UniProtKB/TrEMBL annotation:
Chief localization: other
Taxonomic source organism: Hyphomonas adhaerens MHS-3
Subcellular location: Cell envelope
Stored InterPro entries: Redoxin (IPR013740), Thioredoxin-like_sf (IPR036249), Thioredoxin_domain (IPR013766), Thioredoxin_ResA/DsbE_sf (IPR050553)
SUPFAM superfamilies given in the database record: Thioredoxin-like
GO biological process terms on file: cytochrome complex assembly
A GO molecular-function annotation: oxidoreductase activity
Gene3D superfamilies, per database record: Glutaredoxin (3.40.30.10)
Keyword field: Cytochrome c-type biogenesis, Disulfide bond, Redox-active center
Designated name of the protein: Putative thiol:disulfide interchange protein
Amino acid sequence: MKRWIAAIPVTALVLFAGLAGWELSHPKKGDFERISRTAPDRAFERLEGGTLRFAPTPNGRTIAVNLFASWCAPCEAEHPRLTALAEAHPGQVYGVLYKDTPANGRKFLEELGNPYADIVLDPSGQGGLDFGLTGVPETFVISADGEILEHIAGPLDAAAVKQVGEALAAPRP
């Protein structure tokens, strides 16, 4: 009789562990995003020489920074949408070549087209980590003073392009 009473807490613990495991292995998009943070305070090496900072932004306007790599299949898949976004907002879309070589990055952009106003290098991946990158591709919208306004994890879809486009077009004080 007393054995089944002892099984109740064990059963509850097993059910709780199973539910916790399920929730951790199936996060909703955005569950791990941080809000109200600034762009990395670092000078990135530019693909074509020199350095570039994203806080404050290089052109004094709100910009989108897309982290990509030539070895990233979703980066290739999102490229037409990224190109359309850059055409709609000239000079406001920047690229970070993440954990890749300049030669591979140039080849990738020669084949698909270069939508970026400028491209910086992140060969070690530390710059991506400073942004809060979880995996390429990801896009960050940064205000003129360096505040991250939007963080799109994963490839841009139609809804994300609209969201980023609205943020780029919005007047900022």
